């Protein structure tokens, strides 16, 4: 019943006075509590009168020589000790996160970004920041990261919402057309962008369910083509596998096929018509203070990308 009574009358504005009471209970003296809190003895005494009046309960027995807790004061002291310890622990965790990044970092990233940027830095990142837990959702749909509870997202810079803070993670990215040597030997190698219409094209469906256009050249000379083909996918890895098996040409980031080019399973065509696109960027809400782990991850990726 005592706790119910105190709970009904508790006001968050009394937090400072409760802290004064806890200092008195800990020190056993108004004078020592005042020294501990950097207050005057008069201010400590006034705070206690205000708190007891507010709660309607005597918390301390006072004499000219000593201070002792009443039964209600003893109950409250024990409860406050637990509560203030929890507050101190929370503040300590925040301080630790500020000086040494820790905790969970929730990210929403596109598939290509996850493959090209995150997988390549994991070993170094976790070696340097073992207290950070990355919680990553890989999804090409453009998600509202604030509404969905993510700390940040990684997308192409030109697809980041304008109300977000965005930091480039790469240089501008080169887009190319590639095909398997077996397919190119059978169907011929295109010599100009319009030749694409004579080929089988493996199309990519992007996050808003539209087909990603094939762009050739840059600036005023850029040409956009949507060629014919039997297959449309929303996964780059599957599109590359289809191209390796000779189903048609694929349009993708040059960086995504470096291994295939080196192995000779894919060949770039129309290299002079390659198009430069937006870099990848990490972005977060301007209304949020970014976690320290996010700053460190951004820095790690940018160093790996030689930015």
In words, what does this structure look like?
There is one protein chain. 40% of the residues lie in helices and 22% in strands. The chain is rod-shaped. It is an alpha/beta fold and 307 residues long. It has helices at 2-9, 15-27, 30-37, 41-55, 71-99, 111-118, 122-128, 181-187, 236-244, 258-263, 292-304; strands spanning 60-62, 67-69, 103-109, 132-138, 152-156, 164-168, 173-179, 201-204, 214-216, 223-225, 231-233, 249-253, 267-269, 275-277, 280-285.
Mean pLDDT across the residues is 87
- Please describe the biggest sheet, giving its number of strands, its sense, and whether it closes into a barrel: 6 strands, mixed
How many H/I helical runs? 11
Tell the overall outline.
Answer: rod-shaped
> Which stretches are low in confidence, meaning pLDDT under 50 for 5 or more residues running?
1-8
- Percent helix, as a range, is 40-55%
From the helix content, strand content and strand pairing, which structural class follows?
A: alpha/beta
Order of helices and strands: HHHHEEHEHHEEEEHEEEEHEHEEEH
- Tell me the total number of β-strands: 15
| Strand fraction | 15-25%
Gyration radius (Cα, Å) is: 32 Å
State the separation between the terminal residues, measured CA to CA: 64 Å
């Amino acid at each position: 019943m005592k706790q119910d009574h105190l709970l009904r009358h508790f006001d968050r504005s009394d937090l400072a006075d409760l802290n004064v009471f806890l200092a008195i209970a800990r020190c056993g003296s108004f004078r020592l509590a005042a020294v501990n809190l950097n207050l005057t003895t008069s201010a400590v005494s006034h705070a206690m009168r205000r708190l007891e009046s507010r709660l309607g309960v005597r918390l301390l027995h006072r004499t000219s020589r000593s201070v002792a807790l009443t039964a209600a004061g003893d109950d409250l002291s024990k409860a406050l000790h637990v509560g203030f310890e929890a507050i101190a622990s929370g503040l300590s965790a925040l301080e630790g996160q500020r000086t040494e990044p820790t905790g969970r970092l929730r990210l929403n990233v596109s598939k290509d970004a996850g493959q090209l940027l995150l997988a390549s830095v994991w070993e170094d990142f976790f070696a340097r920041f073992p207290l950070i837990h990355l919680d990553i959702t890989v999804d090409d749909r453009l998600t509202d990261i604030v509404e969905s509870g993510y700390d940040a997202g990684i997308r192409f810079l030109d697809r980041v919402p304008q109300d977000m803070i965005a930091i480039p993670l790469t240089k501008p990215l080169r887009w190319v057309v590639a095909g398997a040597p077996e397919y190119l030997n059978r169907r011929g190698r295109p010599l100009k962008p319009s030749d694409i219409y004579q080929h089988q094209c493996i199309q990519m469906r992007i996050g808003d369910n539209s087909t990603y256009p094939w762009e050739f050249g840059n600036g005023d000379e850029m040409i956009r083509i949507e060629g014919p083909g039997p297959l449309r996918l929303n996964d780059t890895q599957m599109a590359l596998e289809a191209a390796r098996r000779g189903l048609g040409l694929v349009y993708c980031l040059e960086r995504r096929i470096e291994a295939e080019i080196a192995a000779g399973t894919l060949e770039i065509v129309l290299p002079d018509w390659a198009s430069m696109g937006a870099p990848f960027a990490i972005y977060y809400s301007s209304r949020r203070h970014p976690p320290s782990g996010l700053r460190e991850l951004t820095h790690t990726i940018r160093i790996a990308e030689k930015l």
